[in-house]
């Protein structure tokens, strides 16, 4: 018996040796030294986007990492991004399997998280063509103008009481109310306390959290209930689903036959009547959830960063104001149709998005088959991370990348893979136009109507926060505002 055991060990040893000697060495991207079990986790620090940028500067813009059981490709150059989302766009069109995706995303019945295939293509057609096309976005201009008017009224009232305002809260309230009306036709709250309650409930449910957690990299942690992550996600899903189902049911009961400008949920309910099997309540709730999560905190954070940058660069602020005064004047508030005549305002917003992209990484992608990137072999089942922050701050790509220079965008309509605040390829953010319109309108109206100055020190603290999905300021922006004398009569009309 002992001889038989030794014989099998010998045969296994010979087989393993032959396998190792004949195995083709994979041409993998550069990679640091990894540790058993944890891989490269020991090299990561907070904030993650800076930590990965540091590793990429040492090992190259195409970097391979092993994070627990997950293979990860980190790209931080325009050429690598272009290759991932052009040549290999189909291969990287999927999302990775994650605990949050499984629990929160209605079994993939959401355009953002659906696996690439027929379901995703149908959801894309509905989301991009039917709901977020330029024509549809234009139809919601009255909602944006109405809610920006409420923002101006808040600021005008605050200016009479000393002028100190919390712009983080007001911008968050603005984006929440716009999204509630666009998606669910919610009536605008008229009472400030009611507004505050609506905002805080919405924020607790939909302001984004990370789409990946430690259980995704170490699946064994799921079975021991690590840090209660799975339990917390299930409770979050229960609360979100209850909120969304109540919203859908309320709109279903109150929907009339003829609606000139229906909300997203009203449109989806009309589609449900034509095809109830595809347009289930799960699809409707998944779409609404996507809009709420993706379209609120990212937009409000961009507004806060933009105003902070302008306060720290008064010459740019005055240039924006002069452009608005020249093209809009003092007799009517800035509206959606004015935005095309304000190119420098758009440059300011683009430069804000370059310095402080709403997401320092693109949403994660996942390879469906083997491919090559930059001449390196990337195996099937690899997580793709695009470090947008690193590309936007690369001195080999941008002149003086750490400086606020809106003029760099003058005369440029598109920056391609150098400028990625909304992603690239078939899974780029479909709500980019809607988000940009709101940022431009709100920022422009605030500059048109008020003088602004920082509270306390001469400059605004620009330290980013940590641990958030969106790149937000660490210290909320509190400022002093006062009505511009030439706009007092106009302001009294709000």
UniProtKB/TrEMBL annotation:
Gene3D superfamilies: Cytochrome P450. Its cofactor is heme. The chain crosses the membrane at residues 5-22. InterPro entries: Cyt_P450 (IPR001128), Cyt_P450_CS (IPR017972), Cyt_P450_E_grp-I (IPR002401), Cyt_P450_sf (IPR036396), Plant_Cytochrome_P450_Monoox (IPR050651). The keyword Cell membrane does not apply. Pfam families: p450. GO terms for molecular function: heme binding; iron ion binding; monooxygenase activity; oxidoreductase activity, acting on paired donors, with incorporation or reduction of molecular oxygen. Keywords: Heme, Iron, Membrane, Metal-binding, Monooxygenase, Oxidoreductase, Transmembrane, Transmembrane helix. Heme binds at residue 429. PANTHER family: CYTOCHROME P450 82C3-RELATED (PTHR47947), CYTOCHROME P450, FAMILY 81, SUBFAMILY K, POLYPEPTIDE 1-RELATED (PTHR47947:SF13). Belongs to the cytochrome P450 family. This is Cyclin-A3-4-like.
């Amino acid at each position: 018996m002992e001889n038989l055991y030794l014989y099998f060990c010998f045969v296994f040893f010979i087989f393993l040796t032959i396998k190792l000697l004949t195995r083709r060495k994979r041409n993998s991207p550069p990679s640091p030294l990894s540790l058993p079990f944890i891989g490269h986790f020991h090299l990561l620090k907070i904030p993650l986007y800076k930590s990965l940028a540091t590793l990429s500067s040492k090992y190259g813009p195409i970097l391979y990492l092993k994070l627990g059981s997950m293979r990860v490709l980190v790209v931080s150059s325009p050429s690598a991004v272009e290759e991932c989302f052009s040549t290999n766009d189909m291969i990287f069109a999927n999302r990775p399997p994650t605990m949050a995706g499984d629990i929160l995303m209605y079994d993939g019945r959401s355009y953002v998280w659906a696996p690439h295939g027929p379901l995703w293509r149908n959801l894309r057609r509905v989301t991009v063509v039917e709901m977020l096309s330029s024509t549809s976005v234009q139809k919601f201009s009255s909602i944006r103008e109405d809610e920006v008017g409420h923002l101006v009224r808040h600021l005008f009232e605050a200016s009479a009481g000393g002028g100190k305002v919390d712009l983080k809260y007001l911008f968050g309230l603005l984006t929440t109310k716009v999204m509630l009306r666009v998606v669910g036709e919610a009536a605008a709250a008229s009472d400030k306390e009611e507004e505050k309650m609506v905002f805080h409930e919405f924020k607790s449910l939909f302001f984004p959290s990370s789409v990946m957690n430690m259980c995704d990299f170490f699946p064994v942690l799921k079975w021991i209930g690590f840090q209660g992550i799975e339990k917390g996600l299930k409770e979050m899903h229960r609360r979100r689903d209850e909120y969304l189902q109540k919203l859908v049911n309320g709109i279903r009961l109150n929907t009339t036959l003829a609606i000139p400008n229906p909300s997203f949920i009203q449109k989806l309910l009309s589609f449900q009547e034509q095809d109830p099997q595809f347009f289930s309540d799960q699809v409707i709730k998944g779409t609404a959830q996507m809009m709420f999560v993706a379209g609120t905190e990212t937009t409000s954070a961009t507004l806060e960063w933009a105003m902070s940058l302008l306060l720290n660069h008064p010459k740019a602020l005055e240039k924006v104001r002069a452009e608005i005064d020249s093209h809009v004047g003092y007799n009517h508030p800035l509206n959606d149709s004015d935005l095309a005549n304000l190119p420098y305002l758009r440059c300011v917003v683009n430069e804000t998005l370059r310095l402080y992209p709403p997401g320092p990484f693109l949403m994660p992608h996942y390879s469906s088959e083997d491919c090559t990137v930059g001449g390196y072999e990337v195996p099937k089942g690899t997580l793709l991370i695009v470090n947008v922050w690193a590309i936007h701050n690369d001195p080999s790509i941008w002149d003086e990348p750490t400086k606020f220079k809106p003029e760099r965008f003058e005369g440029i309509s598109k920056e391609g893979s150098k400028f990625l605040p909304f992603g690239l390829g078939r899974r780029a953010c479909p709500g980019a136009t809607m988000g940009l319109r709101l940022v431009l309108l709100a920022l422009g109206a605030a500059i048109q109507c008020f003088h602004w100055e920082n509270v306390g020190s001469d400059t605004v603290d620009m330290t980013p926060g940590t641990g958030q999905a969106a790149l937000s300021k660490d210290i909320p922006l509190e400022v002093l505002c006062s009505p511009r004398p030439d706009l007092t009569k106009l302001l009294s009309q709000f």
